[in-house]
Amino acid sequence: MFLEGLWQREGKEEFEKWEKSGGFLFNGRGYRIKNGQEETTETLEIKNIGDKLFYLATVSDQNNGATVKFRATTNTRTALVFENPQHDFPKRIAYRKLSATEVFVEVTGSGGRGFSFKMKKLTPALLARDFIAAFNERKIDKMMSLATPNIKWMTIAGDEIRTETDGQQELRSFLENYFKSCPSCRSEIKNLSQSGNRVTLTERAHWKSGTGDFKSNDSLAVYEFAGGKIVRVFYYAEPNAAGYDRRLSMRLGADERGMKIYVLAWLKSGSAKLEKDERAKLIQGHMENIGRLAESRKLVLAGPFMENDNLRGLYVFDVRTKAEAAELVLTDPAVKAGVFDVELRLWYGSAALLELNGIHRLIQQGTNTK
Predict the structure, then answer these.
(1) Of the candidates 225, 37, 32, the residue with the CA atom closest to the CA atom of residue 144
(2) Is the pTM of this model over 0.70?
(3) Who contacts 154 (Cβ-Cβ below 8 Å, separation ≥6)?
(4) Going by C-beta distance under 8 Å and a sequence separation of 6 or more, which residues neighbour residue 175?
(5) What CATH number was assigned to the domain covering residues 124-255?
(6) pLDDT, tens digit, for every residue of 81-140?
(7) C-beta neighbour count of 117 within 10 angstroms
(8) Which CATH number fits domain 260-363: 3.40.50.620, 3.40.1400.10, 3.10.450.50, 3.30.70.1060?
(9) Beta bridge partners of 37
(10) 317, 299 in Cβ contact below 8 A?
């Protein structure tokens, strides 16, 4: 059947996806993208009931959620027409094949009432182009809509394979840092080929350096698709004799010196007078909050000072302003209760600090030691 595959309505973030389930049975789903997430609008089937072919549509907010059947009146290699004269609207649904990648859809009722539109077939090659176009337009929600929730982005450099991001949340955070650190960065497709569910392309990155010079380099990327979405990206970094890793630099938000702005939070003894048990409970909450902040990747470094004076500990936050850091500090119950006072300072340090938590997990002894 010519409808098999993923289709997008022209000019809209609305889609139909049809998959063959066996024999002449096709399962379909209509959905739209809202705030970067899929929202199902209808569940569809095309199947034989007895010796007749039917189109079954279930729309959650119509017909009290009941399935409506439309019997096929035309079934050819280029046209599918389904009708139900007893239904109020629509009474007729027609798909007509215009080309291998385009169909024309008509939805009509009585008295000429209805609407029509074109849909284009979204092949992996087209989806890869859409992904890079969204990158250039800084449309992160659009990029997320083209990826599976568990998307992995991997860099291959020589004989090393490194997972840069694992899952949409990490990819989103990476892109936010990337766009902040390099507002001029854009990507251009030089060559593209598709084989099955994989797309291989040569990508030319362009950016403006801190000295005002325009720079570029070429890299090879392989996009792997599953269910019409990107599930893995393998990025082959351009060999560089100097050892500079542009992708890593961008991921960490580094400038040309390999540095970036952080906010330091000095924790000092507060004025709160508390009972021993209450203080212990707040310190426990303080430690748990450190773990949450580290998991969010906003907290780069934390630890106590070992001298017995007014300075108690240090936070290093991966944010650019004191206002952002102040919001994070106030998630600490011990700070809110007055156990600690806080002084914030902007600090310029190595972007490599962002790799510290990952290294620490490898050297911390615990229940999973080898």
Answers:
(1) 37
(2) no
(3) 161, 162, 163, 164, 232, 233, 234, 235
(4) 135, 140, 143
(5) 3.10.450.50
(6) 999 999 999 999 999 999 999 999 999 999 889 999 999 999 999 999 999 999 999 999
(7) 14
(8) 3.30.70.1060
(9) 34
(10) yes
